[in-house]
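Reopening this one. Same input as before:
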Amino acid sequence: MARTIGSSFSTQLSSTQTRPFYAVEFLYSTPLRIWTGYDDFTILSQTYLGLGNLITIGQVQESADTKANGIKIVASGLNTDILSTAFSQTQQGIVVNVYFGVLTTTSNAQAIVDTPYEIFSGFVDTVTISEQGETSAISFGIESKLIALERPIDLRYTDQDQKHYFPNDKGLEFVDDIQDKQIIWGGGKK
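Same output, byte for byte:
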Protein backbone atom coordinates (compact mmCIF):
# COMPACT_ATOMS: atom_id res chain seq x y z
CA MET A 1 0.00 0.00 0.00
CA ALA A 2 1.38 3.42 -0.89
CA ARG A 3 2.16 5.61 2.08
CA THR A 4 3.67 9.01 2.45
CA ILE A 5 5.95 10.54 5.07
CA GLY A 6 6.75 14.14 5.75
CA SER A 7 9.55 15.85 3.83
CA SER A 8 11.56 16.53 7.01
CA PHE A 9 11.18 12.88 8.01
CA SER A 10 12.34 11.76 4.57
CA THR A 11 15.31 14.15 4.61
CA GLN A 12 16.36 12.90 8.05
CA LEU A 13 16.19 9.26 6.91
CA SER A 14 18.43 9.94 3.91
CA SER A 15 20.99 11.99 5.85
CA THR A 16 24.35 10.61 7.00
CA GLN A 17 23.30 10.78 10.66
CA THR A 18 20.01 9.29 11.80
CA ARG A 19 18.57 8.75 15.27
CA PRO A 20 15.67 6.32 14.71
CA PHE A 21 13.35 5.04 17.43
CA TYR A 22 10.38 2.75 17.86
CA ALA A 23 7.43 3.39 20.14
CA VAL A 24 4.93 0.72 21.17
CA GLU A 25 1.50 1.42 22.59
CA PHE A 26 -0.52 -1.30 24.37
CA LEU A 27 -4.08 0.00 24.73
CA TYR A 28 -4.98 -1.58 28.07
CA SER A 29 -7.59 0.14 30.26
CA THR A 30 -4.55 2.05 31.54
CA PRO A 31 -2.36 2.13 28.39
CA LEU A 32 1.25 0.99 28.54
CA ARG A 33 3.51 3.02 26.26
CA ILE A 34 7.18 2.15 25.82
CA TRP A 35 9.88 3.32 23.43
CA THR A 36 13.41 2.36 22.44
CA GLY A 37 14.99 5.49 23.90
CA TYR A 38 15.88 6.34 27.47
CA ASP A 39 13.87 8.23 30.08
CA ASP A 40 10.25 9.21 29.75
CA PHE A 41 9.49 10.97 26.47
CA THR A 42 6.40 12.57 24.95
CA ILE A 43 5.40 11.09 21.60
CA LEU A 44 2.09 11.98 19.92
CA SER A 45 1.05 13.88 23.08
CA GLN A 46 1.48 10.77 25.25
CA THR A 47 4.25 9.89 27.73
CA TYR A 48 6.26 6.80 26.79
CA LEU A 49 8.48 4.88 29.22
CA GLY A 50 12.03 4.54 27.91
CA LEU A 51 13.30 0.95 27.83
CA GLY A 52 16.29 1.59 25.55
CA ASN A 53 17.76 -1.63 24.19
CA LEU A 54 15.60 -3.71 26.55
CA ILE A 55 12.85 -3.81 23.94
CA THR A 56 13.11 -5.86 20.76
CA ILE A 57 10.65 -5.55 17.89
CA GLY A 58 10.55 -8.32 15.30
CA GLN A 59 10.58 -7.70 11.58
CA VAL A 60 7.47 -5.98 10.27
CA GLN A 61 6.56 -7.60 6.97
CA GLU A 62 4.23 -6.42 4.26
CA SER A 63 3.25 -8.31 1.18
CA ALA A 64 1.38 -7.56 -2.01
CA ASP A 65 -1.16 -10.20 -0.99
CA THR A 66 -3.85 -9.46 1.56
CA LYS A 67 -2.14 -11.46 4.28
CA ALA A 68 -2.02 -11.13 8.06
CA ASN A 69 1.67 -10.92 9.03
CA GLY A 70 2.23 -10.75 12.77
CA ILE A 71 5.22 -9.49 14.77
CA LYS A 72 6.92 -10.35 18.02
CA ILE A 73 7.75 -7.76 20.69
CA VAL A 74 10.02 -8.71 23.58
CA ALA A 75 10.57 -6.46 26.60
CA SER A 76 13.31 -7.66 28.95
CA GLY A 77 14.80 -6.42 32.21
CA LEU A 78 11.41 -5.28 33.43
CA ASN A 79 10.70 -4.33 37.02
CA THR A 80 7.79 -5.74 39.01
CA ASP A 81 5.48 -2.75 38.35
CA ILE A 82 5.36 -3.40 34.61
CA LEU A 83 5.20 -7.14 35.22
CA SER A 84 2.13 -6.74 37.44
CA THR A 85 0.44 -4.71 34.67
CA ALA A 86 1.19 -7.52 32.24
CA PHE A 87 -0.29 -10.11 34.61
CA SER A 88 -3.43 -8.17 35.43
CA GLN A 89 -4.33 -6.59 32.08
CA THR A 90 -2.84 -8.61 29.24
CA GLN A 91 -5.33 -10.68 27.34
CA GLN A 92 -5.98 -11.63 23.76
CA GLY A 93 -7.40 -8.87 21.63
CA ILE A 94 -5.68 -5.86 23.26
CA VAL A 95 -4.83 -3.34 20.52
CA VAL A 96 -1.12 -2.69 19.95
CA ASN A 97 0.28 0.11 17.78
CA VAL A 98 3.94 0.31 16.73
CA TYR A 99 5.42 3.61 15.53
CA PHE A 100 8.71 4.43 13.81
CA GLY A 101 10.19 7.88 14.09
CA VAL A 102 13.43 9.82 14.02
CA LEU A 103 14.93 12.33 16.42
CA THR A 104 16.76 15.46 15.35
CA THR A 105 20.51 15.19 14.93
CA THR A 106 21.16 18.93 15.02
CA SER A 107 21.25 19.14 18.82
CA ASN A 108 21.64 16.92 21.86
CA ALA A 109 18.04 17.61 22.84
CA GLN A 110 15.55 14.89 22.06
CA ALA A 111 13.06 16.29 19.57
CA ILE A 112 10.97 14.36 17.10
CA VAL A 113 11.20 15.11 13.38
CA ASP A 114 7.67 15.31 11.93
CA THR A 115 5.08 12.80 13.13
CA PRO A 116 6.12 9.23 13.92
CA TYR A 117 4.91 6.76 11.34
CA GLU A 118 2.59 3.91 12.33
CA ILE A 119 4.24 0.81 10.90
CA PHE A 120 2.03 -1.81 12.51
CA SER A 121 -1.29 -2.13 14.30
CA GLY A 122 -2.67 -5.38 15.61
CA PHE A 123 -3.96 -7.41 18.52
CA VAL A 124 -2.19 -9.31 21.30
CA ASP A 125 -2.35 -13.02 20.50
CA THR A 126 0.08 -14.73 22.87
CA VAL A 127 2.05 -13.60 25.92
CA THR A 128 5.00 -15.48 27.40
CA ILE A 129 6.61 -14.32 30.63
CA SER A 130 9.99 -15.63 31.77
CA GLU A 131 11.69 -14.65 35.00
CA GLN A 132 15.45 -14.35 35.47
CA GLY A 133 16.19 -13.52 39.11
CA GLU A 134 14.96 -10.01 39.90
CA THR A 135 13.99 -9.08 36.34
CA SER A 136 11.59 -10.54 33.83
CA ALA A 137 11.08 -10.70 30.10
CA ILE A 138 7.71 -10.57 28.38
CA SER A 139 7.29 -11.80 24.83
CA PHE A 140 4.17 -10.64 22.98
CA GLY A 141 2.94 -12.35 19.81
CA ILE A 142 1.00 -9.65 17.96
CA GLU A 143 -1.38 -10.53 15.12
CA SER A 144 -2.17 -8.08 12.35
CA LYS A 145 -5.65 -6.58 12.22
CA LEU A 146 -6.00 -8.40 8.91
CA ILE A 147 -6.37 -11.64 10.89
CA ALA A 148 -10.06 -10.72 11.13
CA LEU A 149 -10.36 -11.51 7.41
CA GLU A 150 -9.44 -15.12 8.13
CA ARG A 151 -12.14 -15.64 10.75
CA PRO A 152 -15.42 -17.10 9.55
CA ILE A 153 -18.37 -14.74 9.64
CA ASP A 154 -21.09 -16.13 11.88
CA LEU A 155 -23.95 -14.25 10.28
CA ARG A 156 -27.21 -15.63 8.99
CA TYR A 157 -29.73 -13.89 6.79
CA THR A 158 -32.56 -14.21 9.28
CA ASP A 159 -34.98 -11.70 10.67
CA GLN A 160 -33.49 -12.14 14.15
CA ASP A 161 -29.93 -11.33 12.97
CA GLN A 162 -31.16 -8.33 10.98
CA LYS A 163 -33.10 -6.97 13.96
CA HIS A 164 -30.00 -7.37 16.14
CA TYR A 165 -28.15 -4.82 14.00
CA PHE A 166 -31.14 -2.77 12.76
CA PRO A 167 -34.09 -3.07 15.18
CA ASN A 168 -36.62 -1.27 12.98
CA ASP A 169 -35.71 -2.98 9.70
CA LYS A 170 -38.44 -5.21 8.26
CA GLY A 171 -36.44 -6.31 5.19
CA LEU A 172 -36.14 -9.97 6.25
CA GLU A 173 -39.39 -10.25 8.17
CA PHE A 174 -41.15 -12.38 5.53
CA VAL A 175 -38.24 -14.56 4.39
CA ASP A 176 -39.63 -17.59 6.27
CA ASP A 177 -42.90 -17.33 4.31
CA ILE A 178 -41.12 -17.40 0.94
CA GLN A 179 -39.98 -21.03 1.26
CA ASP A 180 -43.60 -22.29 1.19
CA LYS A 181 -44.85 -19.77 -1.38
CA GLN A 182 -45.93 -21.08 -4.78
CA ILE A 183 -44.81 -18.69 -7.50
CA ILE A 184 -46.20 -18.93 -11.02
CA TRP A 185 -43.85 -17.60 -13.67
CA GLY A 186 -44.86 -16.25 -17.01
CA GLY A 187 -48.33 -16.86 -18.40
CA GLY A 188 -49.30 -19.74 -16.17
CA LYS A 189 -52.89 -20.51 -15.13
CA LYS A 190 -54.46 -18.44 -12.41
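So the earlier flakiness isn't reproducible anymore. For the record, The beta strands are 19-26, 32-35, 41-43, 46-50, 55-57, 71-78, 95-103, 112-132, 135-144.
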